[in-house]
Specification:
mainly alpha
Length: about 50
C-alpha cells in the first residue's frame, strides 16, 4: 500500500481509485446529514400542537 508507484499508469490508477473512494465517502456523508435533518424535522413536527 505504501510502495512507491513507478509508472505513470499506476499513479493514474491510484488517483482514480482515491477519487472514487472520496466521492463515495462524500455521498455517504451527505446522505447521513440529510437523513438526520429529515428525522429531526419529523420529530419536531410531531411535537407541534394545533391551537384550536
Amino acid at each position: 500500500m505504501n510502495q512507491p508507484l513507478d509508472t505513470k499508469d499506476a499513479q493514474e490508477a491510484a488517483k482514480k481509485a482515491r477519487n472514487g473512494r472520496n466521492l463515495a465517502l462524500a455521498l455517504g456523508l451527505v446522505t447521513f446529514v440529510i437523513l438526520v435533518f429529515v428525522v429531526t424535522l419529523v420529530r419536531l413536527a410531531g411535537n407541534v400542537h394545533p391551537h384550536a
